[in-house]
Amino acid sequence: MVNSSKQYRDKVSQLISWGHWFCLSNIILALMVGLRYLVLATPPETFLGQSYLIVSWLGQFAFIAFVIFLLTLFPLSFIIPSNRSMRFVGAVFATIGISLLIVDTEVFATFSLHLNPTLIELLIDKEQNSQANTLNLLFVSVPFIFLLELWLAKLCWKYLRRLEHKRLGGPIAGVLFICFLLTHFVHAWADATNYTTITRQKNNFPLFYPLTARSFLQEQGIFDVDAYYKQIKAQEEQQGRLRYPVSPLKYNQVEHRYNLMIVVVEGLRWDMLNQQAMPNSWKQAKHSSQFFSHFSGSNKPQEGLFSLFYGIPTSYWPSFKAERQGSVLVSALQDNNYQIELFSSRGLNLPELAETSFSELSNLDMTQWPGGAAGDEKAVQEWLTWQQSQYAQLPWFNFLYLNGVAAYDNGSGSTISEVTPESLSQHYSEAAHAVDQQLNKVYLQLVQSGQLERTILLVTSDYGNELNDANSNYWGNNSNFSRYQTQVPLFISWPDRTPLLLHGDTSHNDIVPTILEEMLAVASNSTNYSSGQNLFKKRKRDWVLIGNQEQQAVVQNNQITLFDQSGSYQVLDRDLKASNARVSVPMLVQVLNDLKRFYQPQQ
């Protein structure tokens, strides 16, 4: 009995010792695979940052491998007495770990993300194309990895005594443990001091959750939270997070210097542009290029206007607002010496106007205007006065923003006595008719003054208003990404250009590159400043991106894919009903690139 117990302890001791060396061999293998993360990571600018990258690489992969050993081989050493069985089991676990690591490097290279349940679901989809094929090739290597692991397991067992006598395990483990400690303590210091060269590296490796100790340091009186946030703010003001445009604009010679007038009717959905509700605008649209499946960049007013003037995804809106980054469209108009005048029925003291799109303009009138039908009339009258009083030879840009439709204000002064679907729809249509009467003054002035022959007139909206159209109890805006809240009218009257009738999907993101290329002769590639494409150039369009700060929606021919920052997603048809359609990985890659392209690269 005593001998049996001693033999058991000796066997367990041998298996645990073997497990240590097998773990070390897989740490080396994981470090070799993990070299790709070092190549893909943005190189730190400082020596300390570069040193931390190497130390964290050593510490993180040693930690992952050792935790797997502790959770699997260590307890199994007490259960499975056979060294052959243990070697086989160890090879299985190690093969799974190394294979997942190889897949993660490929995912990181493609998406700049690490494996998560959503990505795994996408990647195992057999109907995916080239990306799935690449991963299939990686999975083909799994049997070879398993054979390699079996060989390493056998090698570690065969030379176990010799390895133990060399006493190399302790020093190697000590070095890796020190690297692990340095990884976390240095990051805690960097987080407390806002040393971003190090803190920006936390996404470099999988399962990497470095230590932060702000709360503890604050409790001990070591960390000053107010000074910390002041330092962050000062650093952001000095460096900025944005890279917009990616490179300065370059211009060709402008052949015709047209005026530009953009009219935005807030909250006007696409189907209101008809002969009954808006006869004057409908008539004007008949002589213009019309875009019958045009989408705003959002279902909200701020982000909708943002997409119109910037031509990029609305996820950038908070950063642009925080840095008061002006629109590249407005900058280009200034570069070309355009007179710029703005007219809004709610006034210009709005974040989407004064703090972003037109933040580079001085002497903006911040007077609060009444809004509604009265505000619309006042804004149009102010525009008429300006038009009739200006005689300068310089071209001009006018922006006219009318709010009556969004306010359900038909101009009669009456209010909705009883809120019913019918009364809301009636007031909405009447408000559209009222704003059409105001717009007719604009059309007549441009025609009678002869300005229409020299003016590009663009009429659209920033979002739509849903009126329980699908009987799903959705009203107004900012509740879903159905066409009722996102599809808006767009027609463009362009001198000397044959009107087009386009039924394919287009987006507000397309307007900036269209104006810059066609009107201002910008030679720079539109990818430098926009996610859209020229409306008048035939290009393949597979999807349109709509979104807000909480969620993004990719609109395709027969489906809408919703996803958020956590990586969760949902596929619906264009009527927002559940769909069995697949998510396209190449499309997702393009979208993710668009969502980060105009930020400064991480240091």
Walk me through what this model shows.
The chain has 603 residues and is an alpha/beta fold. 49% of the residues lie in helices and 11% in strands. The protein has 22 helices and 13 strands. The protein has helices at 2-40, 47-71, 73-76, 83-111, 117-123, 130-140, 142-158, 160-166, 169-193, 196-199, 214-219, 225-239, 279-286, 301-310, 317-323, 328-335, 351-357, 372-389, 421-448, 483-486, 511-518, 585-594; strands at 259-265, 289-295, 339-344, 396-402, 455-460, 466-467, 475-476, 490-493, 501-507, 544-547, 552-555, 560-563, 569-572. Strands 3-4-1-5-8-2-9 form a 7-stranded mixed sheet. The chain has a 4-stranded antiparallel sheet with strand order 10-11-12-13, with no helix packed on it. A hairpin with a 4-residue loop joins strand 10 and strand 11 (552-555). The longest helix has 39 residues, at 2-40. The protein is elongated and about 110 Å long. The N and C termini lie far apart (64 Å). The model has no long low-confidence stretch (mean pLDDT 85).
Structural class: alpha/beta
Report the uncertain regions: none
Head-to-tail CA distance between termini: 64 Å
Strand-residue proportion: 5-15%
**Number of extended strands:** 13
Count every helix, treating DSSP H or I runs of 4 or more residues as helices. 22
Q: How much helical structure, as a percent, in the residues? A: 40-55%
Give the strand order of the largest sheet, numbering strands 1, 2, ... along the chain. 3-4-1-5-8-2-9
The value of Rg in angstroms is: 31 Å
User: Quick one: overall form?
Assistant: elongated
Provide mean pLDDT, rounded. Answer: 85
Main sheet: strands, sense, barrel: 7 strands, mixed
